[in-house]
Amino acid sequence: MDDGVLEQFASKVIDFSSQYGSETSISYVASNLAGSKNIYPNYGDYTQAFVLRSYGPWWRDAPSACQPFRRSKESFISQDFVDLEFEEAVYPTKLDIYETYNGGTVVRILAVISPTPKTTCWTTLWTGLQQNIPAEARKFSPEIKQIDHPTKVLRIEFAHTHVDYYTELDAVYLYGKRKKVSHKIANRLGSSVDRVISKLSCLTVDHGGDRGWDMSKKHSIEQSNGFFDLLPEEVMQLILSYLDIPSLCNAALTSTMFKKHCYDALQYTDLNLQPHWTQVTDKALEALQERCKHVQRLNLSWCGMQLHDFVTTSSFTAFIKKCGQQLTCLRLACCPFVTDEALLTISQQCPQLSELDIQCCRHRDMTADGFLALTILTGLTRLNLYRTKIDIYALEELVKSCCGLEHLDLGSVVSLSDMDRALLAIGQNCNNLKSLDLWRPKNLTNIGLTALAMGCPLLEELDIGWANTVQSSSGAITELAQKCCKLKKLFLTAVRSVTDNDLEAIVTNCPDMEQLDILGTREVTTYMAYRVLNKCKHLRFFDLSFCQKIDFATVSTWRGEFPEVAIKQSFQSSNT
Fold first, then answer.
1. What is the pLDDT of residue 73?
2. Whole-angstrom Cα distance, residue 211 to residue 218?
3. Phi, psi of 165, rounded to the nearest 5 degrees
4. How many C-beta neighbours within 10 Å does residue 404 have?
5. Which is nearest to 480 in space by CA: 491, 469, 466, 494?
6. For 208-253, what is each residue's pLDDT tens digit?
């Protein structure tokens, strides 16, 4: 690089929204992004990479898929993120992202800056769309925005519904200068995304009047609202319902009539703030309180930040105390302000709650007491605890109280050291369960799997990926297929002992099977895999990666014969 430009790789992974690997492993985990590259220019499936948890449309099309929010910003397509820290703050000049498998998923890059000693905020360095790229490793170097403040923290956001298999990244390199250099900023307010997001600052308008308007004076726009005066209030409400939140806030600044309609609590019954996570602060939540008295569905996922209290626990609990009575859905994925106090407030103030998502909430003040407080929410039907620290006692009490649960995510919960005990409780109490994610369960055996099969016959989706202690010889997988005939998605990823007998039970008993993953099995034959393709008429996804008895040539032939099925077979290759 040029003289004076510092080149550095990420020194630390601060936070992330998902990873394929285990919390206790070094394979496929986010922490692999810290350090220099060691895979590139090789292309393929390597354990040393950072791998995201999902890809393609398959998770969105599964029985466990969540209902989308009505008023969502179309330009916000991010599904996952990773936050990286570098050793030294610099004025960025270039960024290299080493994509080593199924690239083209990076859609936004942001940086933390401090315009003043007492203020910290995010700024967008680059934004773009998903890309369809050749199946080869690449160094992705987007043209980033030049900024007036140094940074040492970056966020990379991903959208991966378009890729054929898991995205893998090797390393991230940041180039920049220690001292500020004069330059022309092509866009004074940053990218177009920054400009739109910045509108959310209108949330902090003083309740006493509109910013920029002296309401004591008469303006011509106040004397007549033109044709809008002719419209019934219901029609005005309908028109405004199509605006996203920043646009709604901006419309409130135009006239007292628009302010009246834009501040109407019925405009905020379905509130998705995740697309605006960079702008959601304590002040924004306070300003929203008066408008959210009837909010029923709220998404604050990604809001707040581990390094800075953009949203504090006290601000969140104050909001819930004032606006939580009618909440039925609350999504708080990756929110650092979720603590025991927050969970207690939710349990006390949200009596109608049926959906709660606290995945990746891992605050040090989030203990068993907080999870036990949730037992008050007996109406819960959907609960996401992915990567949380719930223990077995709290989970047992929770499923006893919330026996109407239909969707439960316990993926990568390393604090559940006895999954058999957990499944015994689930099987005894949650007979209406439709989906269960146990990704990378600890100490799951045929005992727990049998208890689940006996107690949850309505299961449509089950993920026991990387359940290394499950043995097919016990007959538990066969019994699962026999008892849970409604199964549509079954992930047996890396359950090495899966046999032809297990697949025969699936073919015979699960006619609605749509997604089946048997990655890494040693025993399944070509004959049986072909039988699955022939007999499961609704099958749309079949992962045969690293199955020892099924070769690439055979899979290639099957893809031509069964074009309606996405048959997956991962690989490694060396490119020199």
1. 82
2. 15
3. -155, 180
4. 15
5. 491
6. 333 332 223 333 344 567 778 888 988 998 989 888 888 888 888 8
Q: How far apart are CA 463 and CA 216, in angstroms?
A: 62
By the 8 A CB rule, do 558 and 533 touch? yes
Convert the pLDDT of each residue in 103-137 to its tens digit: 999 999 999 999 888 888 999 999 999 999 999 99
- What residues contact residue 453 under an 8 Å CB cut-off, 6+ apart? 427, 476, 479, 480, 482, 483, 484
CA–CA separation, 199 vs 128, rounded Å? Answer: 20
DSSP 474: G
Beta bridge partners of 153: 85
Q: Collect contacts of 239-242 with beta carbons under 8 A, ≥24 apart.
A: 240/267, 241/71, 241/267
Structure token pair of residue 460: 């449509």
Token representation of residue 153: 């923290």
Which DSSP string corresponds to 286-345? HHHGGG-TT--EEE-TT-S-SSS-SS-HHHHHHHHHHH-TT-SEEE-TT-TT--HHHHHH
Q: Are strands 106-116 and 151-158 parallel, antiparallel or unpaired?
A: antiparallel
* Tokens read off for 343: 């969970």
Q: Burial level of 563, CB count in 10 A (0-12/13-18/19+)?
A: exposed
Pair of tokens at residue 88: 């030294």
Q: Whose CA is closest to 462, among 473, 479, 375, 56?
A: 479
Cβ-Cβ contacts under 8 Å for 154 (sequence gap 6 or more): 10, 83, 84, 86, 95, 109, 110, 111, 112, 125, 172, 174
For 283, list phi and psi in degrees, rounded to 5: -65, -40
Terminal-to-terminal C-alpha distance of the chain: 23
| Beta-strand pair 435-437/461-463 | parallel
Interatomic CA distance for residues 181 and 179, integer angstroms: 6
Measure CA 156 to chain center.
13
- CA atoms of 240 and 233, how far apart (whole Å): 11
What span, in angstroms and rounded, lies between the C-alpha atoms of 550 and 546?
8
